[in-house]
Amino acid sequence: MLNLKKINTQSKDLQANIPSAEPQYLQKKSAWRLRCVVHPVFSLCLYLLFPLSSFADVEQLINENEDSSLSTRGLKSIAVLQSLKHLEKKSLNSAPFVQELPNAQQVRSLFVATQALPIVDIQLTFHAGSAHDESIEKGLFGVANMAAKLMPEGTDQYSAKQLAHAFDALGAQFNVNAYRDMFIVRLRVLSDPKKLESALDLMLHLINHANFNASGLNLVLNNTKIGQKQVQENPSRLMGIKFYRSLYGQHPYAEPSVGTQGSVKKITPERLKTFRDRLLVAQNSNIAITGDLTAPQATALANKITQNLPQGEPAAAIPEAIEHQDFNLQFIPHHSSQAYITMGHLGIRHADPNRAALEVANRIFGGGSFSSLLSKELRIKRGYTYSASSNLTSTEAPGVFSLTYSTQQDQLMDSIQVAHQTLINFIQQPLTKTQLEETKEGLLRAYPMSFSSNANINAQIASIGFYGLPTDYLNQYQKQINALTVKDVQKAIHQHLHADKLTVVVVAQSLDMKALKNSLNRNIGIEVEQNVHSTDAKTPTKTTLATQ
């Protein structure tokens, strides 16, 4: 049985035996935030020379004696730099070695051994994101998000305060998040066996016994109401919600992960427990472990997790979404001085073989900040906007390809015509080899940051486990990018990008929908007016989009 008093006693005994040279930062929750209090030049040198994970463990030394003279801090800084020479040395371009661990419950468990820091990161990823909300009850949007928010708030045996103090005493971090695909539980703790075992027991206790009490639920509901009111004042948020609803229709991805003001009112402690009992089970999970352990130790850890989770069945697969076959135009009246525009269509699954090629294509088109084609056309050449970007999301079911920007009301129609024509040109006109090579180089240069820390590595291997990718995927991805040719990328563009099937959402003071439709049709060579999926609204009216 979990015993918090024993945990606190063990923690004090362990702390008393920690050598003075051992990092102390894990003993204080706030110490995870890196604060450079030394001379700015030295701070910059640290940042340039070492990844965050390499010098986070010296933060306690840096924070000591903040009122000391500059010369004293300089001497301490030298000692700090000296201590870093013993850290594990890695090639910046080498992906970590991912091991597949045997598991008694046949739950996929992946492990990366690192010795740079005496810590362990554990992530449990369940197929229990908001896309599965309606598997509990029709229209019950937001239940996964609510379960994530309330899980740390206590059990029948221990209060949230007691549990938080226990995690702090162990120098551990525990957090829970829900997304469209995933429900994620994370634990970070020292690799000391006693602390690791105690923190793991705490994590399992919360997963299995969180009581989702009514008082905590009511508090979150009140905060949700405030958040929903704020959404009504945020044109960008309104646009995003409308875009997903218009694009996905009745698909599970259509509703926001947080739910709606109407749906969250139906969430009760009993429904949250049903969610937990049905979806937070061993057979619906995968495990990622990164840290200062051996493979046998990590295997024992993963087996303990799966043996102590409830047993059940995998969640049903997320269904296919139905793609629009023509323009789908939507308008939200709003008094904002700026007009907000997004346009896009269904994208690809995470495991799609064309993902690498499309990531390169997206970076060239609109994902490369000010150097992208979209930004050059809208911002640099015409000054229509400060920032324009495109985004490619890949999920369990097909994700989204979209472009987004804001502009002045009097530039709205012209900017949409230019953005749409830029996409058409990108699809029709061949890429240059220079464009491709520069983009590939940029992606490969940034890629090592994906595994520059234990937390980043663990997130990567958790994604590998969740989406069923091979263990050597991190190395495969680099090879895939390197091998891409202009022909490969152009083929992926022609197959997956469609300028004639866009869902377009505009948030503005007014909009001539007929003129917009005709402009888009002219761009693709069609002069005949086609059916539009929204009324021609020109006068601002109150909208309650996020609270329906």
Structure description:
The chain has 548 residues and is of the alpha+beta class. The protein folds into two domains: 210 residues, Cytochrome Bc1 Complex, Chain A, domain 1 (2-Layer Sandwich), CATH 3.30.830; 197 residues, Metalloenzyme, LuxS/M16 peptidase-like (Cytochrome Bc1 Complex, Chain A, domain 1). Helix content is 44%, strand content 14%. It is built from 21 helices and twelve strands. α1 packs parallel to α7. The C terminus is likely disordered.
Task: Output the keywords.
548 residues, alpha+beta, Cytochrome Bc1 Complex, Chain A, domain 1, 2 domains, six-stranded mixed β-sheet, metal ion binding, Pept_M16_N, MPP/UQCRC_Complex, Insulinase family protein
Topology:
Elements lengths: L3 H13 L23 H10 L2 H4 L3 H5 L6 H14 L15 E3 L7 E5 L5 E8 L16 H8 L9 H10 L3 E6 L4 E8 L2 H17 L4 H19 L2 H14 L12 H4 L4 H11 L5 E7 L3 H14 L19 E6 L4 E9 L1 E2 L5 H13 L5 H8 L7 E8 L4 E9 L3 H17 L4 H14 L7 H13 L6 H11 L2 H11 L6 E6 L4 H11 L25
Parallel strand pairs: 2-6, 7-12, 9-10
Antiparallel strand pairs: 1-2, 3-5, 3-6, 4-5, 8-11, 8-12, 10-11
Helix pairs in contact: 1-7, 6-12, 14-17, 14-20, 15-16, 16-21
